[in-house]
Amino acid sequence: MSYVDGYVIAVPTANRQAFIDHARTGDGVFMDLGALRILECWGDDVPEGKLTDFRKAVQAKDDETVVFSWIEWPDKATRDAALAKIGEMVRDPSKGDARMDPEKNPMPFDGRRLIFGGFVPVVALEK
Question: Global pTM?
């Protein structure tokens, strides 16, 4: 069964192209490690909620845009192995892929406010 990682990030609106460049570089690593599909979605219609919403979840500031992303994996085992490998690369860039080196591909957002989680699909409709 497939597995999905979901992410919500607050990115400075002025860093839109830097985010796209960062994602295009780093997402290739996820694909090389078995991801089936990755979508990076720039917020376009992200309404403010009365109790909670995407902006509140990541403490987005007025000059930031919410990005909603997900990675589809063939299964959780592939995802777990990939994330372990990526963790090694981030901790010690000399052991891995330069695309994951924070000095060569710095995050154009505050990673402390990124929220993420892994999900098991329970309903899937496709054409």
Answer: 0.88
